[in-house]
Amino acid sequence: QEKSCRLSAALLGEDSEISQDQLYELLKYAALGKCHNAAQPSWCRIYHQSHLAGVVVVVLHEMSQLHFYRFYLQFKHLRKVFRHRFTLAPSTNFPVSLYGEGTNLKPQNTPQGLTSTSSECITKSSDLQCDPIIQRYGGKKQGLTSYTLTLEEQKKNGYPVEGSPRSKGYISTECDQQRTDSSPLFGLDCEMCLTAKGNEVTRVSLVDARGQCLLNELVKPESKVVNYCTRFSGVTKKMLLPVKTRLSDIQTRLKKMLPHDAVLVGHSLNFDLQALEMIHPSVIDTSLLFARNEGRKFKLKFLAKAVLGKEIQCEQKLGHDPTEDARAALELAQFFIEQGPTKVAELNLEMLLTAEKLAEVSQNKAALQPQGCGFQEQLNEPPPLSKPCFLDCLQVTGQKPLLLGRQGLDSSGLCQSNLSTSNKQILQRALEDVPLSKFSIIQFSLGPEYLASHLHAGLYEKVRSKLTDMLTIYAGPFEENFCMKSVKKEFGRCGPIQSLTVVTETFQPYVCIQYEVLEAAQLAVESLNGAEVAGSCIKVQRPVTAAMLDCNVLIKELELDVENEGVIYVAGLKNSLTETDLQEEFSQLKDLETLFLPKDLQSGKHRNCCFLKFQKTQSAVEALEAINGWTMKGSELRSRNALAPGHLWRWIWQMNHSNEKQGKHIFYEKMEQLSDSEQDLRKKVKKLDHHIKKLYRSLQNNTLCIVLFPGVNSMQGSQSGLGLMGIKDEGRSAC
Questions:
Q1: Has this prediction a pTM greater than 0.70?
Q2: Of 712, 723, 728, 725, which is closest to residue 61 (Cα–Cα)?
Q3: Are 688 and 423 in contact (CB under 8 A)?
Q4: What is the mean pLDDT of the chain?
Q5: What's the farthest any 2 CA atoms get from each other in the chain?
Q6: With respect to CATH, is domain 142-339 assigned 3.30.420.10?
Q7: Secondary structure (3-state) at 361
Q8: What residue intervals traverse the membrane (predicted)?
Q9: CB neighbours of 655 closer than 8 A, spacing ≥ 6?
Q10: Strand pairing of 17-18 and 84-88?
Q11: What is the distance, to the nearest Å, from the Cα of residue 507 to the centroid of all Cα atoms in its chain?
């Protein structure tokens, strides 16, 4: 009997924000399984991957998370089918983030089935001035301070920096002395595991400028481990059992070990510092130092072999050796500083990578030849200039990835690329061709007339304004000398309050309360309307505006959203309660899977509410009944079904705390332009949703389907993307 594939992902709060690398990680494993060094994603899990019928990625060109929630009611199919959602960081080169770094070739309009690449893929230029390393650093040798990242570069590449909301609660190394070209270099590398909290450190290594190991320590994660990531980390459950060292111990030791002018070196060091929850002002990142075009990066393993002649991360070993990786990154930086940019550019790393890839393809071809797979003609074609991406690996196994869309997404030259002129044509081709392909990317678009930056700005303001109204309630009337403290206390039991003001324009005073989460505002309306507060029998209501006329419908649909199944919201918690305390208190609840305790993204303090996710919907219903009226540490709890768990609460918080810098006259102009086309836009979105529904229904069971709103990243600003995913199974109503 055919096994049923299954997808699991605990996407709550901060863990629901997925990077482009993590998306690539998922797609690569889904497409290749355990072949070609593909591994289970660190943030979700595919069960029985070998039984997947196929992978279909639907890309909604230049649409963002903003579009999904502005037209939430129109996306009827998407919100009812896809159980797993995540916020997606926007990318300047979205095709690269989908399937790896390619050659930036335009898709060739070749006949269907012909997957040749042009001989112009490889360009042998003797002009080093075109090399990205020379363009970035010049040709002359410089001291190490010329290669440390500036503050802006650190921010751009996701490094923890002082004053950043994401770095609240992080520990500074306090290495604040002025750097010189004689400052000491230290190599740093960490291995991580996946816990209920997210990525946590399990091993830390630090080496000095001579390559001597100063620190190689196992670290006990604070939260429950979901995946030890042993294939990469080399760390097992058994290894961590006797370990007593915690993250705070490592932070203290690093602060003591590093001199005040230390320069840290690592490969994609931002991830290590994030996991360590530490801020260091002076870093050299070898993934950026050995620059490539279009933001691509060489892998550490390749650089170590090509530049240093060293083999690291060998497949025979269980996981990576962080000391080995830290030493390799350090030596790469030292080589670059000592030899200078010109010598590094003369190595022609792109050509070396191409040669390595060709050798890999030849080996794979030789291994597969006895099984009757003939690739001789294909192998005679020059390979593209790219790092290993899973599209060419699919080619080796005789599978042709399919790309359908209006825009050129294919940067590998390997897909059956068909450029169509309308969403309807794209859908028709997809219905015909997707069943014939193991991996398909289908791109739909609203059309160029709806992608202008001024429309995005107006759309953003409308969504922000409506969310603000949904988070706001008015309560009253009260007596003239009512006690504001009593009002704040009573309404604070429903959830975290952002602002509370007295309305003086009315005959009797009213109070305007703006909450931080939708559930709190809804709970206040449901539980306090008609109640006696501060000596007055009050009415509780939301603002009455044209945009709020469908508020009740929207609230109901959010509550019925498939993502909210089995999730409840609990308010009235004391701020002194920790996540561990809550785990103990709620441990008696049946089938509790995950507890998420939101925190202020600026102060890092926990809010007085939490979300509970249960394995079964019925268990959530029973927990809801049990919790209402429950007293915890002297505080009475209130609860209801969740409306906006996971990625959405964080996005709401960010929108709610954003300050628009544009003048009012500009804003009104944008709003007017948006409203002129919004009716047509609603119709287009509804039709788009119908197209995806039709495509989804045509898919075979056990097909992984991912719908991506890529987000917007332009000179005018950026908007986060959104991903929805699930594995089709006709036996269930949702993925």
A1: no
A2: 712
A3: yes
A4: 81
A5: 90
A6: yes
A7: helix
A8: none
A9: 463, 464, 467
A10: parallel
A11: 49
